[in-house]
Amino acid sequence: MSTASDEKNRKAPAGERVADWADGRLGIYGAAKGMLRKVFPDHWSFMLGEVALWSFVVIILTGVYLTLFFHPSMNEIVYEGSYVPMHGVRMTEAYASTLDISFDVRGGLLIRQIHHWAALIFVAAMFVHMMRVFFTGAFRKPREINWVFGFLLFFLSLFTGLTGYSLPDDLLSGTGVRFAQGAILATPIVGTYISMFLFGGEFPGHDIVARFYSIHILILPGILLGLVVAHLILVFYHKHTQFAGPGKTNNNVVGAPFLPIYMAKAGGFFFLVFGVITIISAIATINPVWAIGPYRPDLVSTGAQPDWYLGFSEGLIRVMPGWELNFWGHTLVLGVFIPLMIFPLVLVALAVYPFIESWITGDKREHHILDRPRNAPTRTAFGVAWLTLYFILLIGGGNDIWATHFHLSINTITWFIRIAFFVGPVVAFVITKRICLGLQRRDAEKVLHGRESGIIKRLPHGEFVEIHQPLNQGDLHTLTAHEQYKPAEIGPTVDENGVQRKTSPAEKLRVKLNKGYYGEGSQIPKPTAEEYKEITSGHGHH
Fold first, then answer.
1. Mean per-residue pLDDT for 48-65?
2. Where are the transmembrane segments (predicted)?
3. Closest to 325 in 3D by CA, of 316, 341, 338
4. Tell me, what DSSP letter sits at residue 240?
5. Under the phi-then-psi rule, with left for phi > 0, alpha for psi from -120 to 50, and beta for the rest, what region is 38?
């Protein structure tokens, strides 16, 4: 017996019937309704993550095209292709196919350029995006796991770039692989075994390009894609963070809905990112392998430099003294082994910071309102110190370029980096913290006395004063919305019965660090309502 509902379904358009059928089994209507009406704040800094996302999409699209023409083989041939200067040169099929892509495949060189530039911009955008999240405290509960996902994306993208950079088998990339192999060999006990396994024998072997190819186009992109999806799911699941302002609380989000406004902006932004990358690729040559030549183990390219995101790892090794330890017939190359250990520690310190700060501050609440960096001076100072260390090592990774371009002694540069490695972050920390406290004082002064107008007025008794314009309520809210934390205390050393209370060393350390975050000299008290009323009532206000 047919029901009215069945009759209605038969009369509905085919597309609607398919949608109803799917909803009855997947429940997509309810999920889509909530997701498509998701509200996103409208602030320019949130676009940094989108730059990384759309750059990743460009990498995937161009990478698929390049795989159709690249031959990941180290079999040697004599080149007789269209690039005449290389005629008669012995090279691997990988290098020869790279030349073919550059000179014989329609649009091949442009696609290669887009792929390489998109990779650089992808890593740079992730780096800047993570710094935005760090300095504003967006990593706090409940977003610690999403921060870890973002860090893994950044970390794995470094190795994805390394494997892709090495595929053409040119002299520059081969030198980079040789550098990586030297670092592997410096690993005690297992270094030689790892090297033999990775290269399939003595360096350079005959398998490394094929293995890097599989890792570069299959394993790492698959992991990265999974992490991107997980990262975006958590962004949708958690309420989006937003800067403090009128009407903005931990319980709401002020902005535009995902559909249609945000989706339209995001779609247009994708084409903007793609267009900018294409323009850069068309006018700025990168990695001209035909000018470098194929890799030969007995040659090193002049001015060999890695891509910027791995420059700090090379800087560690370049400025490290050539220390060695010899025992029981074995040599431990400390000049390579110590930097090999510092390299992941510099990155891991960034990955675990949200958990360290949560433990130090004891703050287990959910946070959806972002901090202004000046209102978290200790965290901001740590971030600037980390960046200072990163860029100091980046200079060390190009010490020969600095020496030749600025006519400096390479030994002077190396010693400068060695000293700055220890001194630079400390100086950056102290200066940044003082700047943040100075900005807090200026905000407090602005709240109490208003904004300087530049208008000078002479009072009846002869005094000259500057007229200040009171702030509107929105500005007052923004400048006073941050929390004032009280430093932690260990508490009484005895309980109510007079029994000595034991305090663990970990708790003592936590309280001491907490005072470093929130103690005297780490935050400027906000103006109170009483102070504001007294000033604005005419007592001392111009």
1. 95
2. 51-70, 116-135, 147-167, 179-200, 212-237, 269-292, 327-356, 376-395, 415-432
3. 338
4. P
5. beta
Query: So what's the pLDDT on residue 333?
Result: 83
Kindly report whether the peptide bond that precedes residue 373 is cis, defined as omega within 30 degrees of 0. no
Indicate if the pLDDT at residue 4 is higher than 70: no
* Helical axes 311-319 vs 377-397, angle rounded to 10°: 70
Decide: 300 and 179 in contact? Cβ < 8 Å: no
- Range of weakest confidence among 111-125, 134-148, 344-358: 344-358
What's the CA gap between 95 and 101, in Å, rounded?
A: 10
C-alpha 542/C-alpha 540 separation (Å) is 7
Structural domain boundaries in the chain: 38-351, 372-484+526-541
Whole-number pLDDT of residue 12: 60
The pLDDT tens digits of the residues spanning 5-21 come to: 555 555 667 666 776 77
Q: CATH second-level architecture of 38-351? A: Up-down Bundle (1.20)
Whether the pLDDT of residue 542 is over 60: the answer is no
Q: What is the Cα–Cα distance from 242 to 240, expressed in whole angstroms?
A: 7
Q: State the pLDDT confidence band at 495, using cuts at 50, 70 and 90.
A: low
Alpha carbon separation from 162 to 170, 180, 209 (Å, rounded): 13, 10, 12
Q: Which helix (H) or strand (E) holds 92?
A: strand 90-92
For the cut 80, the answer to whether the pLDDT of residue 231 exceeds it is yes
Q: Above 60 in pLDDT, residue 324?
A: yes
DSSP 448-482: HH-EEEEEEEE-TTS-EEEEEEPPPHHHHHHHH-S
Q: Of 6, 516, 431, 41, nearest to 262 (Cα)? A: 41
Which contacts (CB < 8 Å, 24+ apart) does range 207-211 have?
207/74, 208/74, 208/166, 208/177, 209/72, 209/73, 209/74, 209/92, 209/94, 209/166, 209/167, 209/169, 210/72, 210/73, 210/74
Rg (CA), the chain: 30
Give me the sign of the Cα torsion angle 69, 72, 74, 75.
negative
Q: What is the phi/psi pair of residue 204, to 5°?
A: -90, -5
Give the phi and the psi of residue 288 in degrees, each rounded to 5.
-75, 85
pLDDT number for residue 541: 46
CB 63 within 8 A of CB 285: no
Contact (Cβ atoms closer than 8 angstroms) between residue 98 and residue 168? yes
Q: How far is CA 422 from CA 192, 311, 350, 415, in A?
A: 32, 18, 18, 12
Tokens 């009759």 correspond to what residue?
7
- CA 311-317-318 angle, to 5 degrees, is 80
* DSSP per-residue letters across 321-358: ---EEEETTEEEEHHHHHHHHHHHHHHHHHHSHHHHHH
> What is d(CA 181, CA 183) in angstroms, rounded to the nearest whole number?
5
**3-state SS class at 101:** helix
Site of tokens 């060393």 = 505
